[in-house]
Design goal:
three-stranded antiparallel sheet; 70 residues; 3 strands; single chain; mainly beta; 0% helix
């Protein structure tokens, strides 16, 4: 639920090396649910979540690939 005067809910992907934002992954101004699928180059990174005045949950799952030979 969003409180009156609350800022938008945002999720950013930041570089762990420079600290700079790489991508805005989610931006919501209303209540809701959803899934964001993101592709980025392999790198060390972290999420920054802005959500003053809102109730939220977030889950991060890393995709993996396999190049194993059969």
């Amino acid at each position: 639920n969003t409180a009156a005067g609350a800022r938008p809910f945002r999720v950013w992907l930041h570089s762990a090396i420079s600290g700079r934002p790489l991508q805005l992954l989610v931006e919501r101004t209303e209540s809701g649910t959803g899934t964001a699928h993101v592709a980025d180059e392999p790198r060390v990174s972290y999420l920054v979540i802005e959500g003053d005045g809102v109730s939220w949950t977030a889950t991060l799952a890393e995709a993996t690939t396999s190049n194993a030979r059969q």
